[in-house]
Amino acid sequence: MSPPVLSVRDLSVIAKTDQGPQTLVDRVSFELNRGEILGLVGESGSGKSMTCRAIIGLLPSSRISISGGSVILRGKSDLTHLEESDMRKVRGGDIGMIFQNPSSHLDPVMSIGGQITESIRYHHQVNRAEARNRAIEILHQVGISDPAQRIDDYPHEFSGGMRQRAMIAVALACNPEILIADEPTTALDVTVQAQILRLLMDLREKRELSIILITHDLGVVAQVCDTVAVMYGGRICERGPKREIILDAHHPYTTGLIDCQPSGGSHRGLVKTIAGQPPSQGSMPTGCAFHPRCAHATKECAQTEPAAVDYQPNHMLACHHPIGEINEGGRA
Amino acid sequence: MNSSVPLLEVNDLVVHFAGSTMGLFNRSDQTVKALNSVSMTIRSGETLGLVGESGSGKSTFGRAILRLGELTSGSVLFDGVEVANGTSGDIAWLRRETAMVFQDPYGALNPRMTVGDAIAEVLTVHNKIPTAKLNERVQELLALVGMDTELASRRPADLSGGQCQRVGIARALAIEPRLIVADECVAALDVSIQGQIINLLIELREKMKLSMIFIAHDLAIVRRLCDRVAVMYLGRIVEEGPTDRVFNAPCHPYTQSLISAIPEIDPDKPLPEQLLGGEPPSPISLPNGCAFHPRCPIAQDKCRDSPVPALRGEDGHLSACIFSSESIFPQPT
Ligand SMILES: Nc1ncnc2c1ncn2[C@@H]1O[C@H](COP(=O)(O)OP(=O)(O)O)[C@@H](O)[C@H]1O
Ligand SMILES: Nc1ncnc2c1ncn2[C@@H]1O[C@H](COP(=O)(O)OP(=O)(O)O)[C@@H](O)[C@H]1O
Ligand code: SF4
Ligand SMILES: [Mg+2]
Ligand SMILES: [Mg+2]
Description:
Chain A is α/β, with parallel strands linked by helices. Chain A has helices at 48-55, 84-93, 112-123, 128-141, 147-150, 160-172, 190-207, 218-224, 242-247, 252-259, 299-303, and strands at 6-17, 20-32, 37-41, 64-73, 95-98, 178-182, 210-214, 227-232, 235-241, 309-312, 315-317. In chain A, the strands form two sheets. Chain A has an eight-stranded mixed beta sheet with strand order 5-6-7-3-8-9-11-10, with helices on both faces. A three-stranded antiparallel beta sheet of chain A has the order 2-1-4. In chain A, α3 (112-123) runs parallel beside α6. The site of one magnesium ion has 3 residues of chain A, from α1.
C-alpha cells in the first residue's frame, strides 16, 4: 500500500510567553491518505488552526514554534526541517490552504484571475496566456459561471459564497494533493455551506484531493468526512472513522460534543450541555485537560495524563475511563 | 395590559435605506429594500424565531420594531400603542418595556466598565431601583443568569464569550422588559456554551413570562427554543407558523431548502442531492413576482409575473407560494 500523503507524528507547538513556555499543540498524530477527508473538530482554542499552521510552516508569530514531532509528506520529506524557500514551494504546490474569511486572505487590489495566475506562474514554467487559460479552467471547476467573463473581477465584486469558491480556486491553482480548509463554511449560510461542501467532495472525487477540514460542526463532519480527530486543550483526545466517532465514541468529550449539538435528540427544549468552560491558554489543567468538566473524572484523571492508545489500528483514544465497551481485538 | 391585545402587532412594515448617490451619471435607484411589507403578531409569553439567510432583513426588523433603527412606513403596535410614529414619550415607554441582546458579547460591553457597573448602569438609567438597593439587585441579576456573583468586579476582557453573553442577558433583564429581541445572540459561541445560553433563555422565559423574538440563522436552535417560526427572504416573510408544523411540513420551497440543508449528526445522511443554488439577489433590485423565483426549483411562469399573495390556514400556518394552498388548506379526506 502506498504511504499516507501526509503523516503527522507527535507534532507539538509552543509559545514563549512572559509566564514561560506554553504548549499550544501537544503531540498531535494522524495520517491522511489519498482522497481522504479528515475532520478536525473541537471548541475554539483547542489548537486546530495552530496544528494546520504548523504543518504548512505558517506560525503566526516568532514567539510560536514547533517544539517536536514530524510532518512527513508522501513518506519522504519532513516538512518541519525544510528551509523557508523550500517550504514556500510546498505551500500552494503540494498543500493548499483556505480559511473562514476569504476577504482577509484574497488580495483586494488584485483581480481573482491575477491571483490564480500568479500562483501558477510561481510554481510552473508557463507563459501568461497559458496560465490565464488554466485559471479560467480552475474557476470553472470551482463552479464559477462565465469564468472567462469573471476572471478579471476583483474580490469585492463577488458574493460571499463566490469569494469562498475563488479562494478555493487560488488554493488549487497548482494542483496540490492536499487541501487544508480552516472553517471554510463557518461564516456562510447553511444553503451556501452545502454548496461549498458539495464542491469539496466533488474535488476530492475528481482530483483524489486529500482534505483536512477544520470545523466545529459535527453535522458537517457527518456529511462529508471519512475520519475525525477530536481536539481538546491542544491534544487529540479521540480519533477514528466517522461512523465510529459519531455512533460509538468512547471519550467523554466526544460524546459530550455530540450530545450538545442543537440539531440532535428531540429537536425541542433544553439542550444537553458540557458544564464549565474550555481551558484557556496558561491555565491548562493537570492530568487529563478535560477532567474539570468531565462527569467520569476520578482522582487519577486530575493527576495523570491519559496515554494516547491506538486500541484499534485506526481508532485512537486518550482517556482513563472510556465510555462503553472497548473492543481491543484489533489492537496490534 | 390588555390581555385581548397582542403584545406586538406589526402591519405592513417597510424599511428602505436610501442608497448612496455617488455616481453623477448613475441614475438608477440604489434604494436598499431591506423590509418589504412585513406583518406579524406576537402574543404575551410567546417566542418567535426569525430565520433566513444573511441580508434577508432580520436585524433590520428587530431594530425597527424596537425603534432603534429607521422605519419607512407601516404600523408597530406595542401593547396596543402605535409606536411607529409615536411621541418621544411613547418611545421612552417602549424603551422601558423592551430590550435587545446582541451577537457580539464583547462588543456590546464597555471594556473599561466592570460587569457589576455595566448592569448597575442599566438599572440607574431606567430608574429601576433606589441607589441603596443597587448592589443587591446586581447580585440578584448575576445569579439569575447563572453567574458567580464574585465576577461583578471583573471586566469583559477577563471573561469568556459565554460569560459576556450572560452579562448581556442580565443587562437586558435589568430593564424587566416584556419583549426581548435576541439577534444572533449565540452565533459567536462554541457549541457547548451555546447550549448553556439556550437553556438559560428557556428557563428565564418561563420564570419571567417573557416574550421573545429570537433572530438566528441556525434553524436547529430556533426549533429548540421557539413556539413559532417566521422565515424571511429578501425582506418578506415567506412562511410562518407553529414550529412543529413548519419543521415537519414546510410549505414554501425556500423553507424546504433551508431545512434540508441543516447538517444532521447522522453518518448515514450525506449532503442532500438537491441543493438550493445561488445566493439571494441584491435587495436593491428585487426580482418581480415571487422574489424567490430565480432560485426556486419549482418556479413556473406565473411565479415570475405577478406578486404571490401569502395564504394563511386555520392553524395560523402561512406560506407565500402559489403551490402552497393544498398544504396550507389540507383537503378533508
Ligand atoms: N498569535 C497567537 N499568539 C499566541 N497564542 C495564540 C495565537 N493564536 C492562537 N493562540 C493560542 O493557541 C491556542 C490554539 O489556538 P487555535 O489553534 O487558533 O485554536 P482553534 O483553531 O482550535 O480555535 C489557543 O490557546 C490560542 O489562544
Ligand atoms: N443602515 C443601513 N443602510 C443601508 N443598508 C442597510 C442598512 N442596514 C442594513 N442594510 C441592508 O439591508 C439588508 C438587510 O440587512 P439585515 O437586516 O442586516 O439582514 P440580516 O440581519 O437578515 O442578515 C441588507 O442588504 C443590508 O446590507
Ligand atoms: S481521562 Fe478522566 S477526566 Fe479525562 S475524559 Fe477520561 S474520564 Fe474524563
Ligand atoms: Mg481556528
Ligand atoms: Mg443580522
